[in-house]
Amino acid sequence: MNGILYRNGPGLYHIGEDRFKHLFDGMAVLHQYTIKDGEVSYRNRLVQSQTYKRNKDANRIVVSEFGTLAKPDIHQSIFSR
Q1: For the whole model, what pTM was predicted?
Q2: Cα separation of 39 and 48, whole Å?
Q3: Residue 77 has pLDDT above 60, yes or no
């Protein structure tokens, strides 16, 4: 048997000190299993979505998800007044 199997799902459950509170909220990971000549190889990659980039740039959760609310930036709320 030869072929490629792709799977996706949550994989990164924390950004900086913040943790996602629900299984569905983890940043997405793509998995690839390649089967060729009786050998199996595996690769994975985090999906570089806009949400992932915003959270990584801030080093905390700044985009609310299904079960996780983003914490407001204290500096943003103070200076916006």
Answers
A1: 0.74
A2: 29
A3: no
